[in-house]
Amino acid sequence: MNDPLVEQPAPEPEFSAYQQAMRARLLAAPVVPAPEPWRRVACAPVGGLLGIGFASHPDSGHDLVMVVSGDGHGLFDAVTGERIARERDPDPDGSTPEATADLSCPGLGPIAGGRVRIAGLFGGGLHAGTGDGWAVQVVAPDWPRDRVLLSRGSALPHSGPHAERWWHILHAAYSEFRAAGFSPSGQTLAVATSSDLSLWTRRTDDRARKP
User: Fold this and answer.
1) What is the dihedral of CA 10, 15, 17, 23, to 10 degrees?
2) Is the peptide bond before 141 cis (omega within 30 degrees of 0)?
3) Residue (of 38, 47, 34, 128) closest to 79 by Cα position
4) Residue 36 CB partners (closer than 8 Å, separation 6+)
């Protein structure tokens, strides 16, 4: 008895000329600094980073970024870039967010007693845009290497000149991408990979120096 014929998968469609040109454009764009008024305030190594989430400082009003990693929890001031709290041995029941329906973890330091939703390895997400037109996108023209693009005035990174309408601000060439997005205030942009946390703020220096 002959074996039944095995249906062959249909060939994947080829990229159109438009898609090929867009991919080539993304591959050719070098990493550049974020434009004004954004300024980078941190590129902190965090081994085994799993995810990040935003909170607000109850006293200063600064955006805070909570980091969940294999080494515990940390809390960063997103205006100064400083790490202001750390918990190396969190309660095992709340050390990672996948055990809760809202992917949250207990806060620490000035936000102890509350909970922070975490975006990263276990799911979730951050704000992809701000109310005044900034947007962040993650693309992978040479997957699995992710590239983070900041743009303004258009959600399409290929619709204007690089470093004028859109900016390639981070290339995750050696680490796994975890999350990228804005704080609810729109004043902070955070990008997390499996090895580090990068923060940009657009608050002025005068405001950053306030206690």
Assistant:
1) 180
2) no
3) 38
4) none
Taking alpha carbons only, the member of 26, 35, 20, 21 closest to residue 164 is 35
Could you write out the DSSP letters of every residue in 77-92?
A: ETTT--EEEEESS--G
29: part of which helix (H) or strand (E)? none
Q: The pTM is what?
A: 0.88
Determine how many CB atoms are found less than 10 A away from the CB of residue 160.
14
Dihedral-angle region of residue 124 (phi above 0 means left; psi in -120 to 50 means alpha; beta otherwise): left
Strand-pair category, 72-77 with 63-69: antiparallel
Place of tokens 């936000």: 111
Cα–Cα distance between 148 and 62 in angstroms, integer? 24
Give bridge partners of residue 69 from the DSSP assignment: 49, 72
The Cα–Cα gap between 107 and 137 comes to 28
Task: Give the three-state DSSP class for 107.
Answer: coil
Rounded distance between C-alpha atoms, residue 54 and residue 125, angstroms:
11
CA distances from 141 to 26, 100, 114, 158, 190 (A): 7, 34, 39, 13, 21
Nearest to 142 by CA among 104, 168, 179: 168
How confident is the model over 78-135, as pLDDT tens digits?
Answer: 999 999 999 999 888 888 999 899 999 999 999 999 999 999 999 999 999 999 999 9
